UniProtKB/TrEMBL annotation:
This protein's name: Threonylcarbamoyl-AMP synthase
EC numbers, comma separated: 2.7.7.87
Residues reported in the UniProt entry to bind ATP: 59, 63, 119, 145, 153, 196, 237
Catalytic activity: L-threonine + hydrogencarbonate + ATP = L-threonylcarbamoyladenylate + diphosphate + H2O
Top-level taxon: Bacteria
Keyword vocabulary terms for this entry: ATP-binding, Cytoplasm, Nucleotide-binding, Nucleotidyltransferase, Transferase, tRNA processing
PROSITE patterns membership: YRDC
GO CC entries: cytoplasm
Single GO MF descriptor: tRNA binding
Cellular localisation: Cytoplasm
Family to which the UniProt record says this protein belongs: Belongs to the SUA5 family.
Coiled-coil stretches noted in the UniProt entry, renumbered to this chain: none
Keyword Nucleotidyltransferase: yes
Amino acid sequence: MKTGLETLILPAGAAGAEAAARALAAGGLVAFPTETVYGLGADAANATAIAHLYAAKGRPAFNPLIAHVADIPAARRIGRFDTRALKLAEAFWPGPLTLVVPKIEGCPVADLATAGLDTVAIRIPAHPVAQAILRAFGGAVVAPSANISGHVSPTLAAHVESDLAGRIDLIIDGGPVSVGVESTIVGCFETAMLLRPGGLSRERIEAVLGAPLARPSLEAESDDSQPLAPGMLASHYAPRAPVRLDAREVTPGEALLAFGSARLPGVDTASAVMNLSPTADLDEAAANLFGYLRSLDAKSPRAIAVMAIPEQELGEAINDRLRRAAVAR
Ligand code: TXA
Ligand code: MG
């Protein structure tokens, strides 16, 4: 692994985008903001840079990466888009949606980044800083979330720094992200599949498709030989403290991650309380989720109790991440 690197932190802006593009072209690892979470970018065509990326994150190499591009013509130089995939791309790109499509012949994305699959995950991010970097660089950039594998995803440059300083070349600081959970991943297979709920709600995608999205079965999710969404390992997004879901009361020494205006019994004995959205706004809750989990975890509570969150709109992604955080390790 490349450790002991001097990690430079630059503000977003024209000079930052140019520096990011130069570092990517030289095979470097560059963290930058997208509207969902901060990503850790590498040149999608450079297998050595991608190997460094896996090592820097401690990420298993069977877990493929998302290729980020600036526009739909660039996406079509990587993947094959049928009518249905193109319809989704045109409706939601740039934005918090990743499409898994067949690779085109001679796909420039290195095999290491796609874990040997004949499909590729593609996203056009909407964040102006991500867009500026992609345009300055010119090629596709693979970018997983910029955290140590298994940790909570970063929504601030400071989160990236605390996980990856000394392991990557550059961090572009563009302030807090707006969406706060990772992109929704849709597999454009025979039936369209929701591989990962995320920052674009199922409801909005189904409205454009005019059909429901299938969910991979639990067996398919955990079957290594048939990786549909290979990165959806159970114990992901994990703080150090145990996470207790659907809390209806607080027990002494627990931290409370609240949602809405209800006041739980025992809340006065909580070691800390943060409210994802006092007005029960699911977009606001998604934006606050990972930062609040990090903040509560930093206080080393006995456990983090989490109030119930409705399973609709961005609540589906929030509950998905919380369930993974709650899996005992
Ligand atoms: O919002 C996001 O998607 C962020 C930002 C940085 O763009 N990126 C992100 O990447 O969350 P990562 O690496 O943490 O998650 C990518 C997911 C993994 O679950 C991986 O298994 C899945 O995408 N994936 C990648 N290629 C795939 C493929 N060909 N088929 C199925 N799943 C794939
Ligand atoms: Mg991740």
